[in-house]
Amino acid sequence: MELFLFIRSTERKKRNVWELKRKSNDDATIGIKIESLLERNIEMKTIIRLLSVFLILFFTGCQKGEVVEKTTKGTGLIGQWEWASTTGGFIAIRQTPKTLGYTYLVAFTKDSIYQVYDKNYQLVSSNPFTVFTGISIFTTKLHPMIKADNLLRSSYEIRNDSLFMSQEVCDGYDQVFIRY
After folding, report:
1. 31-78 pLDDT, tens per residue?
2. Which residues of 102-116 are buried (b: 16+ CB within 10 A; e: fewer)?
3. What is the reported pTM?
4. Do residues 16 and 74 share a domain?
5. Which of 21, 66, 87, 91 has the fewest CB atoms within 10 Å, measured from its CB?
6. C-alpha dist (Å) from residue 58 to 30, 53, 92
7. Cα(116)–Cα(124) distance, rounded to whole angstroms?
8. Structural domain boundaries enclosing 118
């Protein structure tokens, strides 16, 4: 994302207006106007302090959940997992092996390969995956994440012998797998 910052003073209806904008390469602009603070007899030190606080919040609060750090903590993922359920999506589905009449397996190898096996346990796809710590769009907190070519970026949690994966998109799916 390309960022640039500009401050401009203009005269509008004989009032001093300051504009502060942030622009990204997709032409989305976020801005704020600070009108005539000087006319209200506020000292310049106060204006600079307020502007500094705003800039800090502005640039630290607008993260999109980028990769924070790669990690090797994904070793708990290694092995085969049998699909147990899928919920969510735009129409809030709930699918299980019982409702669909079959199950399938996914596997995470030591070589960082994510494999999907169909209901007949035949290999369908095999792609590299990355485990990292990222900011969840749902909680805005750090969570372990996984990303593969054929898998949307997903946060995950392992509890006992269950793997819970949540796609990090609006209307995404939550999946549960049991260690195979």
Report:
1. 555 554 445 556 677 777 777 776 676 666 544 444 444 444 557 899
2. ebbbbbbeeeeebbb
3. 0.59
4. no
5. 91
6. 9, 8, 34
7. 6
8. 67-179
